[in-house]
Design goal:
937 residues, alpha/beta, Rossmann fold, 4 domains, eight-stranded mixed β-sheet, seven-stranded mixed β-sheet, oxidoreductase, ODO-1/KGD_C, Transketolase-like pyrimidine-binding domain-containing protein, KGD_C_sf, DH_E1
Length: 937
């Protein structure tokens, strides 16, 4: 019986296939509207088109259809992918043509509509032998494909046609191959000069540089304006120096232990493997300069992924708005690139969360290109212990992304893999994965001894040629370069690096200037906490009315008309009783009129967790969505993007941080469904939001709205864990000598009135710099009658107050006890004081600390000085003693008191959980807090 041989095919292809550009699928793009912005993004194609004759031909040759389908679906199991040959290529029974009754090598088939190969004579007829050889060369060589899992038939057909019709094309031309050769020599110099430095080099996976260079060239040819890269530490220095024009002398300066910033810069800097760069690249025949930005990353590996997508999405919006081509669609002007390690790709949950955003409205980047630098090991963990899937890339199938596996020993095939990935992304605007299978020449870092745990693998690695040497040998054999030229190229690059190394001793890092869209911003030296953020009352009434206005025929839910729209209009007319949601809408609307954009993102933010906001209205008959504040009010009005996100915190918060560092003219807000939902995004908070400016001089105006407050609902969803944010703040404890200046890394506020949140949000954009803002927001006081504001509290000349004085302390001289409080507990204390007799009540002042960081030393000292007869200060909180603000405020309040009087704590005792889950105990504890606050009065 005749069988197909599964020998490794020659790298050059079978010779039976040729380019068939005219036959490639050219699907007509259709578009849908992005809900908030109206930016066009390509729709998925709904079906694959076969002509009636092709369909009949497929029926006639059903056996061949089955064989071709087997190669397309499982041909990857018979490929030559492993450079180390640790994973041997298998014989796959499903690829045996006899299995389908094809036993005669000379049997002819009409392949029209079945297989996209071009025959020698240009007809659509080929023999079984020719077909099987072509299938083997296409699907079982150094490239392998997985795309049959994709549900959209048009995407599967396009991939099959493109892969098959280009399989026999010539590889990169001689100029490109010489370019690849020149890119593969950096690590040899680094190992020689800096062998004792942990640099996480790319040795063994050098073809990743070829992958990126080919991708950049494709972007340039296609007229893409920008590319944004997120990647972990391995290979970062290679890519920065080899491709992104990062000055080697700057790298060597950093390697010598110096800062990447000029002396005197208020920045802590970061380790070598986290540095970033922005470069402008030019390619021969390209459509212009390609701006490539590599974002900084933390050591939490894949945490950069959502940041890249958020940054890229925001940049896409800007490029789209400023593009003059009416046919431009979202994704045309920018390409997002995510580079992963193999163990991290399948092991880190943020990868799955970020993939989950890829096809969602308000998050889509028009498709990201993922490159897995697959070293076949994770630190010391073998791949058999690192994942439960067959391939590390299998996690990408959750979004039906096609996967291209490629053997990293063959840079020319790597370049082809990138071309296929780029063209798929260009056509369908979906994520695509390139699994670049390589090895790691050294240990996890250059100082590790990997053979302690992987002796077999490293015996093979040490005995084999390097990827650059293998490629050089092939280039010499093919006449791409000569021995003399190769030697000269190595010598020239080596001398260049030697010269740069010599120059690093006198290197002075350039200053970092805010540029581009950030040119109007400043680098703060002291926090601005109070500034006039008021707005004319007539304008506020107009904005308030606009926030609930809908077109005729738009049917609003009857409950909303009665309980939301009518009360809001009444509040505005009377100028009092302004509730929280109305004040927030006034802040949004007034900022939009001033030209700022706002992105409000989180789970259920359109309606609001507590059904309080309703920034997005839904027609009860058509289910059409209306964002009333986006109704036109002049050409300079900004846009409000209301984003009901998926059930993710880590990736979504990272995405919003990415948005925030892209433009100072957008107010990005992430609202947690409940305050403690940020828990699963702690990595983003620690490594980006809290420290991004300190490490990398990146300003961020991100706002985190975290509903906070104990209301008897149990341990979870009560506390926003403000103690964690305060612990991350870098503000001084003592300002008594006047020498300390507060310029904290972020602000933490606990506003208790609608006017305060109005001013906080406006201050966030009106200041000449950007800082993250954490707001412990309200829950039960959202509709509390006592927690309302007058319209005049938001009028001209008004501002946010870091400390709210006790307006009810009519006789300050009678006050003996000052209660300091942050948050909703104020209203419980105020109600309890009102129930005291007049003489006792007059002896108690209740002062609200509305901003905890920067701590309002001067404002609080000024307010407490109003009560010269006070003998005691009490910090009151409903949180436990080991939580809440007490540990943060205690030394700062004591620095104000300077021993003049004691500071007493009133609140819950220490507890591992935020609060009890037993309602009777909760009520007793709450009552005791109030009782202790007023005992002795």
């Amino acid at each position: 019986m005749w069988r197909l041989s599964l020998r490794a095919p020659a790298c050059s292809g079978s010779g039976l296939l040729r380019a068939a550009g005219a036959a490639r699928i050219g699907a007509v793009r259709r578009y849908h509207e992005d809900v908030a912005y109206g930016y066009r993004v390509p729709r998925k194609h709904e079906h694959a088109d076969y002509s009636p004759e092709q369909l009949r031909n497929r029926q006639r040759h059903a056996a061949l259809v089955c064989l071709v389908g087997a190669y397309r679906s499982i041909g990857h199991r018979a490929t030559d992918l492993d450079p180390l040959k640790l994973q041997t290529r298998q014989a796959v029974p499903e690829l045996d043509p006899a299995r389908y009754g094809i036993v005669d090598p000379g049997e002819s088939f009409d392949i029209d509509g079945i297989l996209s190969i071009a025959t020698k004579d240009g007809s659509t007829t080929a023999t079984a032998a020719e077909i099987c050889q072509a299938l083997s060369d296409t699907y079982c060589g150094h490239l392998a494909f997985e795309f049959e899992h994709i549900p959209e038939a048009a995407e599967r057909k396009w991939l099959a046609d493109y892969i098959e019709s280009t399989s026999g094309e010539r590889g990169p031309d001689a100029a490109r191959r010489r370019r690849f050769f020149e890119l593969l020599v950096f690590d040899a110099f680094m190992q020689k000069k800096f062998g004792q430095v942990k640099r996480y080099g790319l040795e063994g996976a050098e073809s990743a540089i070829v992958a990126l260079d080919e991708l950049f060239a494709l972007c340039s040819d296609a007229g893409v304006a920008e590319a944004v890269i997120g990647m972990p530490h391995r290979g970062r220095l290679n890519i920065l120096v080899d491709l992104l024009k990062y000055p080697p002398r700057a790298l060597f300066h950093k390697l010598a232990g110096h800062s990447e910033f000029p002396a005197g810069t208020a920045a802590s800097g970061d380790v070598l493997s986290h540095i970033s760069s922005t470069s402008h690249l030019s390619y021969a025949g390209g459509g212009g300069d390609l701006k490539v930005t590599m974002l900084p990353n933390p050591s939490h590996l894949e945490a950069v992924n959502p940041v890249v997508t958020g940054y890229g999405r925001a940049k896409q919006m800007y490029l789209y708005d400023h593009n003059t081509d009416p046919g431009c669609a979202l994704g045309d002007r920018l390409v997002g690139i995510q580079i992963h390690g193999d163990a991290a790709f399948s092991g880190q949950g943020v990868v799955m969360e970020t993939l989950g955003l890829s096809n969602l409205p308000h998050f889509s980047l028009g498709g990201s290109i993922h490159i897995i630098v697959n070293n076949q090991i994770g630190f010391t963990t073998p791949m058999t212990n690192a994942r439960s899937t067959f391939y590390t890339s299998d996690i990408g199938k959750m979004v039906n992304a096609p996967v291209i596996h490629v053997n990293g020993d063959y840079p020319d095939e790597v370049a082809r893999a990138m071309r296929i990935a780029f063209e798929f992304r260009k056509m369908f605007r979906k994520d695509v994965i390139v699994d670049l299978i390589t090895f790691r020449r050294w240990g996890h870092n250059e100082l590790d001894e990997p053979s302690l745990t992987q002796p077999r693998m490293y015996n093979i690695i040490r005995a084999r040629e390097s990827v650059p040497r293998l490629y050089e040998r092939r280039a010499l054999e093919d006449g791409v370069v000569s021995e003399a030229a190769a030697k000269e190229a190595r010598a020239a690059f080596g001398q260049y690096l030697e010269d740069e190394l010599a120059a690093c001793s006198s290197y002075v890092p350039p200053g970092r200037q805010l540029a581009g869209k950030w040119a109007g911003m400043t680098t703060p030296t002291e926090a601005v906490t109070q500034m006039d953020t008021g707005v004319a009352e007539d304008t506020l009434r107009e904005v308030g009315a606009q926030s609930v206005a809908v077109d005729p025929g738009f049917k609003v839910h009857s409950r909303l008309a009665k309980r939301h729209i009518q009360p809001r209009l009444k509040q505005l007319e009377e100028g009092r009783g302004i509730d929280w949601a109305t004040a927030e809408a006034l802040a949004f609307g007034s900022l939009l009129r001033e030209g700022y954009n706002i992105r409000l993102c989180g789970q259920d933010v359109g309606r609001g967790t507590f059904s309080q906001r309703h920034a997005m209205l839904v027609c009860q008959e058509t289910e059409n969505v209306c964002v009333p504040l986006n109704s036109p009010r002049g050409q300079h009005q900004g846009k409000l993007e209301v984003v009901n996100s998926n059930l993710s915190e880590l990736a979504v918060l990272g995405f919003e941080y990415g948005v925030s560092i892209q433009s100072p003219n957008t107010l990005p807000i992430w609202e947690a469904q409940f305050g403690d939902f940020f828990n699963t995004a702690q990595v983003i908070i620690d490594t980006y939001i809290a420290s991004g400016e300190t490490k990398w001089l990146l300003q961020s105006g991100l706002v985190m709205l975290l509903p906070h407050g104990y209301d008897g609902t149990g341990p979870e969803h009560s506390s926003a864990r403000i103690e964690r944010f305060l612990q991350l703040c870098d503000t001084p404890m003592d300002l008594s000598d006047g020498s300390a200046v507060q310029n904290p890394n972020m602000h933490v506020a606990v506003p208790t009135t609608p006017a305060q949140i109005f001013h906080l949000l406006r201050r966030q954009m009106k200041r000449p710099y950007r800082k993250p803002l954490v707001v412990a927001g309200p829950k039960t006081i959202l509709r509390l009658a006592a927690a309302t504001s007058a319209l005049s509290d938001m009028g001209p000349g008004t501002s946010f107050a870091p400390v709210l004085p006790d307006a009810d302390a009519a006789s300050p001289g009678q006050v003996r006890r000052i209660l300091l409080v942050a948050g909703k507990l104020y209203y419980d204390l105020a109600r309890a004081r009102a129930e005291l007799d007049a003489a006792a009540a007059a002896q108690v002042a209740i002062v609200r600390v509305e901003e905890l960081c920067p701590f309002p030393h001067r404002e609080l000292a000024r307010e407490m000085a109003r009560f010269p007869g006070a003998t005691e200060v009490v910090w009151c909180q409903e949180e436990t003693m080991n939580a809440g603000a007490y540990a943060f405020v205690q030394p700062r309040i004591q620095s104000i008191l300077a021993g003049a009087m004691p500071l007493r704590y009133v609140g819950r005792g220490p507890l591992a959980a935020p609060v009890t889950g037993v309602s009777s105990v909760y009520k007793a504890e709450q009552a005791q807090i109030i009782r202790r606050a007023f005992e002795g009065m």
